[in-house]
Design brief:
Nitrilase/N-carbamoyl-D-aminoacid amidohydrolase, alpha/beta
Length: about 280
């Protein structure tokens, strides 16, 4: 495994319910990312279908593996790179059970998946109406490093990123469908999650309008120091790439030894007090 990799963040405007169009768009961006030397290209949350699918979610959801996975596997195998994207995943055990899932593909095919743990159901969000929350937080050991996946609202819960880092993750990938009213939160939280865990973080957000809801883009790749390695434009489709050097993790851990100074007893207190909210 090389210490240095090139990450591409591809914020796209999806057509709601049109998987053929969205896969075609991802194919174009994958080829563009490859031309720019990317080892990994990251797409937004639910980029296979668009975000506001509402009751269409039940007919659009697929199992993993499934037909859309097969199509995208052929593309990344041909381009010889890795990709992360989002889709509604149908359970293989119960057709009515659906997850909001991030999928990791590589040059050899499907590597793994992560099911979104925190499902926002307030204001304009209604994810618990359609999705079941995930319960696993896997770490993926790949040729481009140890990766952890998160999805959008997960960024509001620092314990998720902290646990991934404690499991040895070098790069946290967050795929998102954040509307403009949440822009300030994500600009702060993504930087904070990188700094407080001395970890690289790649954030890719949706752009465009869906049923009057505007998604702001602003995708970014962040160093453990909080430095923005690459940042995409606001409100329009864009693709940016940034090189990350895993050797920086050790240097940052020495400069800011947060992981060394963790007090595990605080986790016990957090569990105790959160149970009685």
């Amino acid at each position: 495994m090389s210490n240095m990799i090139n990450v591409a963040s591809a914020q796209i405007e999806c057509k709601v319910g049109d998987k053929k169009y969205n896969i075609g768009l991802m194919k174009k961006r994958i080829r563009q990312a490859k031309e720019e030397g990317a080892d990994l290209v990251v797409f937004p949350e639910l980029s296979l279908t668009g975000y506001l699918t509402r009751d269409l979610t039940y007919s659009l959801a697929e199992t993993i593996p499934g037909p859309s996975i097969s199509l995208l596997e052929k593309i990344v195998k041909g381009e010889k790179l890795h990709m992360v994207f989002g889709m509604p995943e149908r359970s293989g055990k119960a057709r009515g059970v659906i997850y909001n899932t991030a999928v990791l593909l590589g040059p050899k095919g499907l590597i793994g998946k992560y099911r979104k743990m925190q499902l926002p159901t307030h204001s304009v969000f209604e994810e618990k109406r359609y999705f079941r929350p995930g319960y696993q937080l896997p770490v993926f050991e790949t040729d481009i490093g140890k990766l952890g996946l998160t999805i959008c609202y997960d960024m509001f819960f620092p314990e998720i990123s902290r646990l991934l880092r404690l499991k040895g993750v070098q790069l946290i990938v967050c795929i998102s469908a954040s509307p403009a009213v949440r822009r300030r939160f994500f600009e702060v939280f993504t930087t904070a999650r990188a700094m407080e865990n001395t970890v690289f973080l790649a954030y890719t957000n949706l752009v465009g309008l869906e049923d009057g809801l505007q998604f702001w883009g602003g995708s970014r790749i962040i160093a453990p120091s909080g430095y923005i390695i690459a940042r995409a434009k606001y409100d329009v489709e864009d693709l940016v790439t940034g090189k990350i050097d895993y050797a920086d993790l050790e240097r940052m851990e020495a400069f800011l030894p947060i992981l060394r100074d963790l007090r595990p007893t605080f986790f016990d207190h957090m569990k105790k007090h959160s149970e009685v909210l």
